[in-house]
Description:
343 residues; two-stranded antiparallel sheet; 16 helices; globular
Amino acid sequence: MNIADLIAKVDGLIWGPPLMILLVGTGFYLTIRIGFIQFRGFRHEIKVLFNHFSKEDDPGEISPFRALCAALSATIGTGNIVGVAAAILIGGPGAVFWMWITALVGMATKFSCCALAVHFRRIDNSGEVHGGPMYYIEMGMGPSFKWLAVLFAVFTAIASVGIGNMFQINNVAAAVNTIIYGYDVKSSEMVNMIVGLIAAGLVAIVILGGIKRIANVASKIVPFMCVFYILAGLFILFKNAEIIPHGLKLIFKYAFTAPESVAGGLLGGVIRSGVARGLFSNEAGLGSAAIVHGAARTREPIRQGMVAMLGPFIDTIVVCTITALVIICTGAFELVEVKGKLT
């Protein structure tokens, strides 16, 4: 068994029904328990985001807006492009519907974990903030759960190597190889090495400056990146405006009836594809965003939790939807010669 087969086997075991039910089920439970706050508090989220309530003397290191940008910098990227394309190719257009459901309930999960991160954070004598699930697990559940906090920290570090680094840079290198050599030529090891070294250098310059520099850079890049991508997607959709209703119809039609050409004609495959790619894209339930939001400058955990809820909305409901509609409305997912190139 080679490494690719091993990874595929582990992926199949991890992204099985138990984990998806746990993550989405937790989102549904929290949505009900906190009174559908992702819908009721949407207007208030915008006010909090743009510092209507944040003060310079509030505890924390970065503004709520910069905290959101830093969190979005980890979610808006290849997951919105490659992840959505893979979801549609594997699960059909109906997978997009389940991505939406995952994002909507994931907003409640994101609210809860980020609010807890602010509530249970630690601020040392130098004013540096330490927050995240590893802190609120121990402080909220008690010292007897310190082992769980340690496990979270360890597995988060491991996960950051895969979904946070290897997947991203692999797609960047693949894109550069495609530009230089075309689709039909294998990637160049030299190009891969150069891309990796350049990326490592640029990332080092940012992350060695700590959370303040990360948030500062993210607040400059993420809004531009997000707006540019949305406008580019809307331009394509505008040119195909007459078939947008048909694209939406396909999404809802195949959300509950899997076509034979994808997912083996099984509805479970459609749901699995949408849920897995949705969670991969917005990271609701992963816990990584709570580490960033825990450093936000605020005295109100609930307010920062509401800001954090915008993450899954922007990432999945807005950006991923535009990607999905571009792929579906242009018919790219149905073209055999394009399928392998989408991912």
